Amino acid sequence: MSFRTSSGPWYGDERRLLRFEWSARNAIPGLRRRLVTAGGTRALAYAVAVSVPHYSHRQVEIRFRLGVDRVPLVAVDGPESPHRMADGSLCLWYAWDPRAMRWEVEDGLLQLVCIITEHLFKEAWWRETEEWLGDEAPHGSRKDAA
Fold first, then answer.
1. CA-closest candidate to residue 84, choices 45, 44, 142
2. Domain assignment of residue 137, yes or no
3. Among 85, 90, 74, residue whose Cα is nearest residue 122
4. Domain around 72
5. Rounded CA gap, 51 and 103, in Å?
6. Total domains in the fold of the chain
7. pLDDT band at 118 (very low <50, low <70, confident <90, very high)
8. Residue 117: which CATH number?
9. 3-state SS of the chain?
């Protein structure tokens, strides 16, 4: 897989991409990166197995659609929850929340995986107790939340 090193999206610059991945590559065994095409849309995709504390392992795919590069689409195997988008992807934060409550590309891949793991724990807890641990926001289209 080759990436250019000129201006453009963060994933198009090898140095920025490596900085984005660095901590995750050192902390997550088996992390894989690939380019995928689905429904005519190309994406940079990461596949990772996540261990949800006190629950089970889950298979996660994180996709950054090329051209729509700052908001990931996160797909996970396993049961649904009310904190998913209409397409089944995880609703991890509200797009209009303050910066401190949202993930940004500059936070890196490891931080995103930590947020996903926390979300999957909350989903598992909710399935057992019907109590959501944490803040909740409106759900709807991908434009409404991320």
1. 142
2. no
3. 90
4. 10-129
5. 20
6. 1
7. very high
8. 3.10.110
9. CCCCCCCCCHHHCHHHHHHHHHHHHHHCCCCEEEEEEECCEEEEEEEEEEECCCCCEEEEEEEEECCEEEEEEEEECCCCCCCECCCCCECCCECCCCHHHCCCHHHCHHHHHHHHHHHHHHHHHHHHHCCCCCCCCCCCCCCCEC
In angstroms, rounded to a whole number, what is the distance separating the alpha carbons of residues 60 and 119?
12
Sign of the four-CA dihedral 138, 77, 17, 1: negative
Query: Per-residue pLDDT tens for 90-109?
Result: 999 887 888 888 899 999 99
pTM for the model: 0.85
* pLDDT tens for each residue of 13-69: 889 999 999 999 999 989 999 999 977 888 999 999 999 999 989 999 999 988 877
